[in-house]
Amino acid sequence: QVQPKESGGGLVQAGGSLMLSCAASGRTTIVYAMAWFRRAPGKDREFVAAITSSGSATVYADSVKGRFTISRDNNENTAYLQMDSLKPEDTAVYYCNARTFAHTYWGQGTLVTVSS
Questions:
Q1: CA dist 91 to 31, 48, 85, 108, 115, Å?
Q2: How do residues 55-80 score in pLDDT, each as one tens digit?
């Protein structure tokens, strides 16, 4: 099993920045990709960004492209989400997942609130 754990959420003003971290523990050698999703109040969960195990490939939702950057440190088994130019509509619980070929493991989420 793999256990992702998010941190770094908080309250920030519009236009500000936050960096989220997702530390994975357990059988991290079988993780081939990590991703961030979010769920805004009253909305469905949506994809934000993903990165492969090598970090060579990334993909972003159109809504965050150019503002968010996903990265990972394999020595620390940690993925990061640098969020810049935050908007009130970015307010959500942000979830990290770690993907293996057999299963996708989810963290508990971290709340990001962007005030206008």
A1: 28, 13, 12, 16, 8
A2: 889 999 999 999 999 999 988 889 99
